[in-house]
Amino acid sequence: MENIVVIGGSNVDLKAYSENYLPHTSNPGHIEESLGGVGRNIAENLGILDNKVTLLTSVGNDHFGKKLLEETSRSQVNLDHVKITDKEKTGLYLAHLDKDGELIAAISGMEIMNSIDESYIKANKDLIKNASLVIFDTNLNSEVIEYILEITKKNKIITFAEPVSIDKGKKLLQQIESIDYLSPNLDEAEMLLGLEVKGENDFSLRLKRVKEKYNRYKNIPVMFVSCGEKGVLILSKKKSDFVEAEKIPKKDLKETTGAGDALLAGIASKLVRENSELKKAVEYGIKIASLTVKSKFTVNPDLKERLKGD
Q: Given a cut of 70, is residue 182 above it in pLDDT?
């Protein structure tokens, strides 16, 4: 079985749901707690999908840290190399969602990510050198990302980056030619390609601009551009393609948190285990993401069973 190393954020998600949100006042609703963190989510999905995966991350020596380690280990993720620190609290992600599970706003408290430094990566260098695929998110600082890519480039290890957000994704701009695969959303893709982020402007026009700009670059990674409920745009030098998302009835949609992480995990699983063509890998990733948004959890614990049933 191929070895996958995931390097990135781990946190606990606190999710607040409200029926009819009014700003500047208290809103009735309910609050739920689940595990999160981009890197951790990707690793857990990969573990559930029966991949051999090791997670490199940092948690605090506190209640939330112990909860993260205990519950993530149930998905067969190797946590032997996780950094446990007394200096920082475990990361927390506070999200406010509407009645349909769509994100209204969120705050991410990830100061603990500063403890994932070059010395920690150096201590785990052999794991990275012997991996078939290294996946990392941009919760890491720029110097650590640069060091990881030095190792992977020297040892010809395939890399897959998750930009996380427009602001954090900017860390990839100086290193983009050293990455093999990228999984941005449409806004992040526009930023990475040096385009103005168009937000709600005409969707087909945005896709056209992104494809045209992508094709002007010589050394740029394959991009799997998530377009939410519309689908995924595949950008590669060989062929660009668009794969439509599964149509999910509103009654089956629980929430969208973690869908992008599930998409990446599904794509990566197909690429590393079966060397699938890009479109088939994306179709599988969309299936994993679809099953995720039908669950109230950031990572669907019933993912494997649901796959068998489909």
A: yes
What is the residue extent of each domain of the chain? 3-10+38-91+113-309
Q: What is the pLDDT of residues 86-128, one digit of tens each?
A: 999 999 989 898 877 778 888 888 899 999 999 999 999 999 9
101 contacts 255 by C-beta, under 8 angstroms? yes
Class of domain 3-10+38-91+113-309 as given by CATH: alpha beta
- Token pair for residue 61? 């020596």
For 261, the token pair is 């992480």
Closest CA to 265 of 222, 224, 302, 309: 224
The reported pTM is 0.92
SS (H, E, C) the chain: CCEEEEECCCEEEEEEEECCCCCCCCCCEEEEEEEECHHHHHHHHHHHCCCEEEEECEEECCHHHHHHHHHHHHHCCECCCCEEECCCCCEEEEEEECCCCCEEEEEEECHHHHHCCHHHHHHCHHHHHCCCEEEEECCCCHHHHHHHHHHHHHCCCEEEEECCCHHHHHHHCCCHHHCCEECCEHHHHHHHCCCCCCCCCCHHHHHHHHHHHHCCCCCCCEEEEECHHHEEEEECCCCCEEEECCCCCHHHCCCCCCHHHHHHHHHHHHHHHHCCCHHHHHHHHHHHHHHHHCCCCCCCCCHHHHHHHC
Residue among 254, 282, 258, 250 nearest 268 (CA): 282
